[in-house]
């Protein structure tokens, strides 16, 4: 018998698992807290976990410290408890293990203590929900006398961010690089954050010719880690361009600063279309 061992690490709000397992819903999917809104030395929060009505599954909860990578992903740093922005030492949560059944919700409560001892800026951690017992799925392999066993273990992460004291959210467009492909424009974007708290942004790309808007497209939303950079790649379609010539790509990035004010960053880059027949096949 051939065995295949696979572990799934899932960080999403609504997770659809194979038929032998259930759907898992977590709300909210992340916690963003402001310690400046409390007068005491502690802060409380909670989230709900709900499984499928036909599933019984037991979860354990444990914390990990993470940083936001230059690619905008969660970089787990196991065992790193010395970082000043590690929130684990200040968080207590209940329960630390529970069973989901009959589609009932389970509320997980947490308390952030000793806020006065937390440094200014952003601190963070992630609470992982992991099923205690791995599931085994038998899959056809297409080969005689060979069976594939899929061992699935579900792990769901809920990021927790805490801003405290004097924190700053400040972003900047560092570089925009355009590369024309057959039917699209590849947009390589580099952003930076000079503040001590992450920046969560959204944006759009506009194609302009002779001051006229030709097309407008959303770009992917991302998070820039505090005092960090972010490099992303987006594909801008050229389907709305009907003639050769010089065009401008205007990039509009928006984020909310530490005072709740909407900030806009605008960057323009020129590109040329000179092979329209090849672009539109």
Envelope shape? flat
Residue share in β-strands: over 45%
Oligomer: single chain
Number of helices: 1
Query: Main sheet?
Result: 5 strands, antiparallel
What is the average of the pLDDT values? 88
Unreliable spans: 1-22
Task: Please identify the structural class as seen in this structure.
Answer: mainly beta
Radius of gyration: 23 Å
The termini sit apart by: 49 Å
Give the total of beta strands: 22
Topology pattern, helix = H, strand = E? EEEEEEEEEEEEEEEEEEEEEEH
Numbering strands along the chain, what is their spatial order in the largest sheet? 2-3-5-11-9
In helices, the fraction of residues equals: under 10%
Annotate the secondary structure layout.
Elements: E1 2-5, E2 14-16, E3 23-27, E4 31-34, E5 43-50, E6 57-64, E7 66-68, E8 74-76, E9 91-94, E10 97-100, E11 105-112, E12 121-131, E13 135-140, E14 147-152, E15 155-164, E16 171-180, E17 184-193, E18 199-209, E19 212-224, E20 228-237, E21 245-256, E22 262-273, H1 276-279
Description:
- The chain is mainly beta and 281 residues long.
- It is 1% helix and 59% strand.
- A five-stranded antiparallel sheet has the order 2-3-5-11-9, with no helix packed on it. The chain has a five-stranded mixed sheet with strand order 4-15-12-6-10, with no helix packed on it.
């Amino acid at each position: 018998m051939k065995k295949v061992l696979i572990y799934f690490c899932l960080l999403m709000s609504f997770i659809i698992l194979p038929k032998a397992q259930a759907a898992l819903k977590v709300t909210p999917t992340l916690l963003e807290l402001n310690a400046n809104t409390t007068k005491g030395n502690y802060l409380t929060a909670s989230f709900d976990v709900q499984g499928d009505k036909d599933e019984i599954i037991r979860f354990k909860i444990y914390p990990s410290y993470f940083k936001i990578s230059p690619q905008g992903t969660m970089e787990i740093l196991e065992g790193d408890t010395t970082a000043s922005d590690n929130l684990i030492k200040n968080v207590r949560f209940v329960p630390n293990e529970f069973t989901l059944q009959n589609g009932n919700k389970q509320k997980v409560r947490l308390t952030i203590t000793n806020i006065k001892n937390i440094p200014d800026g952003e601190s963070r951690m992630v609470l992982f929900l992991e099923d205690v017992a791995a599931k085994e799925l038998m899959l056809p392999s297409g080969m005689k006398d060979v069976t594939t066993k899929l061992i699935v273990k579900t792990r769901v992460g809920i990021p927790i961010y805490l801003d405290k004291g004097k924190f700053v959210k400040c972003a900047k467009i560092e570089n925009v690089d355009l590369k024309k492909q057959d039917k699209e424009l590849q947009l390589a974007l580099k952003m930076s954050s000079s503040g001590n708290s992450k920046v969560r942004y959204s944006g759009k790309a506009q194609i302009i010719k002779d001051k006229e808007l030709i097309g407008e497209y959303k770009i992917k939303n991302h998070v820039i880690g505090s005092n960090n950079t972010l490099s992303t790649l987006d594909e801008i379609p050229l389907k709305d361009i009907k003639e050769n010539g010089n065009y401008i790509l205007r990039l509009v990035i928006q984020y909310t600063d530490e005072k709740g004010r909407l900030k806009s960053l605008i960057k323009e880059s020129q590109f040329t279309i000179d092979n329209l027949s090849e672009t539109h096949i």
